Amino acid sequence: MAIGLDDVVAAETALSDVDGLAGRLIIRGRSLDELAGHEPSEAVLAMLFEGAFETPPTWRDVALARVDAFNRLSPLLPSVADLPLYDAMRALVANLPDLASLETALLLVAAPAVAVPALIRLRNGLQSVAPDAGASHAADILRMLSGTPATEAEVAALDTYLVTVSDHGLNASTFAARVVASTQAGLMSSVLAALGALKGPLHGGAPGPVLDMLDEVGAPEMAERVLASMLERGDRLMGFGHRVYRVRDPRADALKTALDWLNPSPRLTLALAVEAAALKLLKAKKPDRPLETNVEFFTALLLDALGFPRDAFTAVFAMGRTGGWIAHAREQAISGRLIRPKSLYVGPVPRQEA
Ligand code: ACO
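A: This is the predicted complex of the input protein with acetyl coenzyme *A.
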């Protein structure tokens, strides 16, 4: 029996494999270090969508989908303006068609990419910036966010991020997407289920709290003392530990490399001191349970350096992961198998059977 489904194989996939002991992530037969920093996110999306749809999308298809998504979602922005950013983005996604076509898939990939910059600008009292069908996905997201073209290093850093988080085995949100797809519901339903699962702090909701933790530490020399008191009061150190990895999360390294392309910040110096102190304290606290740095730790620093506010980090994660969710949803739907596990009943039985 595996409460929490640890080590249970619930699906076959040709999309990605997480080797938690070796600290290796394979996406479509290629290791993450071959892809992150080398391939644009559109190319990785095309790899993930192979076999899911008749033709894999080109970068231009993705660009046109941004324009389409922007035209559909812009008029709805005022109706979600009072919601927290993640919930507003999810509400906008819920307005898209619920079909299984490539057109729907690309709209779903494009929706967070256009919605998140527009929502951030809206609450800052700024007009949305329309997508540019001639720009790359990463360059356009940054331009729609700031209103001015990003530097090459910034575009490369965001592209690296989007590729790094594009797919990751049967994590909680991907599993949620596959469960919904197994009922033959449409792609929007799968993506909405995944968005719900991603939101929690044990999954995609951790990077915002990583920055809160750095703020609480304040200065590198305070790291060990402040983190020790957090552990003493029973807090988890955000950005550390993983259900599958027993060594360092390879995605953390990909993002750390991308951070080096951007201007050095005092926050990075603080973060490196916090990482070292956290690893030391966690090792002392749980000598038998390797708790290493996970993807969310450097995600927080990278997205902060790119100008995203911390309450948008989980929505930016969704931008990167939606293609993976859709590829899994299609793979599951095509397999035709309904996912329906059992539960162990531990409640009372009728009196005559007791
Ligand atoms: N800080 C302190 N203690 C920890 C941490 C942590 N970050 N992670 C695990 N532990 C401890 C637990 O308290 C537990 O101790 P106990 O046995 O005394 O209760 C033990 O290590 C095992 O923890 P589990 O919860 O069984 O480990 P699990 O595999 O379920 O947890 C998880 C994985 C949820 C990511 C966990 O490590 C955690 O909460 N980390 C902090 C939040 C975080 O970084 N989330 C992002 C994950 S990456 C992603 O989803 C994209």
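The domain at 29-339 is CATH 1.10.580.10 (Citrate Synthase; domain 1). The longest helix spans residues 313-335.
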